Amino acid sequence: MIRLPVKNGEVAIEPTKIVAIGRNYARHAEEMGSEIPGEPVIFLKPPSSLIGPDSTIILPGMSKRVEHEVELAVIIGKRAKRVSAENAMDYVYGYTVILDITARDLQAEAKRKGLPWSTAKGFDTFAPVGPRVALRDELDPGNLEIWLRVNGEMRQRGNTGEMLFKIPRLIEYISAIMTLEPGDIIATGTPSGVGPLEHGDVIEAHIEGIGTLVERVMRES
Ligand code: MG
Predict the structure, then answer these.
(1) Where are the domains of the chain?
(2) What are phi and psi of 27, to 5 degrees?
């Protein structure tokens, strides 16, 4: 469970699941050599991968290449089961920044073998969130600058308006498969520019209207 600042106080984020979207920005799908999907591509990250702001991402010994992906996180506010896109935004509590940290070498191997991505996406510390939660009415999630710097160098830069599948469609699609509970998180996909992380790196991940999430990177000792 993670506590984050929110307007007039603090909120406890305790998801039953983190649903992440793959290939939701065309240029990122291109840089991965992936096709543009006809339906949302979803996978799960475990709640045990969550960490708060100003924490440490641990590079696991099992991987030789761990990469950053900055994403807009949608936090669900009430139980959503088979919700239509028209009504979907009623189920949103707010937004924060999430890093979908990925062991890219393990993911590539899984793709090659036709296996799931749970290993590549599921290590402890692979889902940093923060620095705060913006409530649903504080911003328009369809037009926000999103960027990520490593050691002060710009690596990823885009706008949430580039998403192939918008938030209402994502909620409609996911809630037709699995009930979304209050506190569940949807990681809405990353813009292009993903790249490797090294021991000692400092990440700044920013979304307009939310703020800048800062994390350190350390190799597993
Ligand atoms: Mg991602």
Answers:
(1) 2-219
(2) -70, -30
